[in-house]
Amino acid sequence: MNKRQIFPQKDFIHCAEILRALAHPTRLMIVQALLKEKGCVRDLEKRLAKPQANISQHLAILRKEGIIGFVEQGKSRCYYLKEVKDIKKILSCVE
Asked: What is the pLDDT of residue 35?
């Protein structure tokens, strides 16, 4: 048996960190919504039918893990996915 790893361990660690951050239904919903288009908290609040405070908490977790970023538009922050390719791969496995 070949003991050589097909993928470097750092790839598995990175994937595990993303999975840990996505391991909540609301965060999965946010990521799914951001795959379609970027959105501000107010937009996500309407699209997901969740309270603003709840969405903001989940956005903070996703931002801390580097999954999402934001741009300031006036007083609002509009969020977008930073790792679209990786997120799509992971979500395709889940589906």
From this structure: 93
The answer to the question of residue 64 being in a domain is: yes
Question: What's the CATH code of the domain at 71?
Answer: 1.10.10.10
Please give the residue range of the domain that contains residue 45. Answer: 9-94
How many structural domains comprise the chain? 1
Phi-psi region of 77 (alpha: psi -120 to 50; beta: other; left: phi over 0): beta
Q: At what angle do helices 84-94 and 9-22 cross, to 10 degrees?
A: 70
Q: Indicate the pLDDT class of residue 91, thresholds 50, 70 and 90.
A: confident
Rounded to 5°, the CA angle 41-43-47 comes to 115
Question: Rounded to two decimals, what is the model's pTM?
Answer: 0.82
How far does CA 16 lie from the centroid of its chain? 13
Angle among Cα 22, 93, 31 to the nearest 5 degrees reads 35
